[in-house]
Design goal:
Length: 255
């Protein structure tokens, strides 16, 4: 993947992702598997069952009278088209009196992130295409926030093209992933452990700084002993991704 995917630092005070349900409730729901594979009726059943009234009210309070576009992440996954974000955006639009943005912006590549490890997620960033309404506010909608990279990349695409992302909401999360903006503590730890070597590598390969990482991405890299190991793990993940027919980052800086 040669094209750089835009990312920008999340501003101070950017709200946490509004998360509606627990993973166990989603995973054990009979509509989850067919919804993840493209069944729109199953997706609506899942969303109606798991969308939280309390979190929906929190989202309404966050918007404070603004009229953003609810934009679902539209993507083909390993099992097929994921119908959950679109159903979630439709239901939330009705409950909040907002407009949905299905079909305006689509994920432009297949990434195979479902149940993938962190290295795979880092080397196969989601890219987007479509028409952004300049000057419009957006709330991003996805079924799950794990590493948060897909949400961060979609925000980058929208803001590069004149829109503003004011919030994000998902049905479920990996533990603590709702705090998507990188914490100062995490960023400081990255520099203390890996110094400018990691920052230079990241700028070279991804075109953005460590301050554009999500907090989960930053913590993941903090747990690795050296930049050399990071480069090796990413090169291995990229090779595996290419073997699956995916297009990872080029990783010209691999060891």
């Amino acid at each position: 993947m040669s094209a750089r995917i835009p990312r920008y630092p999340l501003p101070s005070g950017f709200p946490d992702v509004v998360v509606h349900s627990a993973l166990r409730a989603r995973n054990t729901h009979p509509s989850y598997a067919p919804a993840k594979s493209g069944d729109a009726f199953a997706a609506h059943a899942l969303v109606e069952a798991l969308l939280s009234r309390e979190e929906t009210e929190r989202l309404a309070h966050l918007l404070a009278g603004r009229q953003p576009i609810l934009l679902p992440i539209t993507a083909d996954e390993v099992a097929g088209f994921n119908a959950i974000p679109d159903a979630m955006a439709q239901v939330l639009a009705l409950r909040l009196g907002l407009n949905g943005g299905a079909g305006q912006i689509n994920q432009a590549n297949k990434v195979g992130h479902t149940k993938a490890d962190g290295w795979h997620r880092l080397v196969t960033p989601a890219a987007f295409s479509g028409d952004v309404i300049a000057g419009a506010d957006y709330v991003l909608v996805d079924d799950h926030v794990g590493f948060g990279g897909t949400l961060a990349n979609l925000r980058g695409f929208i803001e590069q093209n004149g829109g503003t992302v004011i919030g994000m909401t998902t049905l479920t999360e990996t533990r603590d992933a709702r705090q998507i903006a990188i914490r100062n503590q995490t960023l400081n730890m990255l520099y203390e452990k890996h110094g400018s070597e990691l920052a230079d590598f990241w700028n070279r390969e991804f075109g953005h700084g460590l301050d554009c990482l999500t907090n989960i991405e930053g913590e993941y890299l903090c747990r690795v002993e050296s930049v050399a190991v990071i480069k090796t793990r990413m090169a291995q993940a990229a090779e595996l991704a290419r073997g699956r027919g995916l297009s990872p980052v080029s990783l010209d800086g691999r060891p």
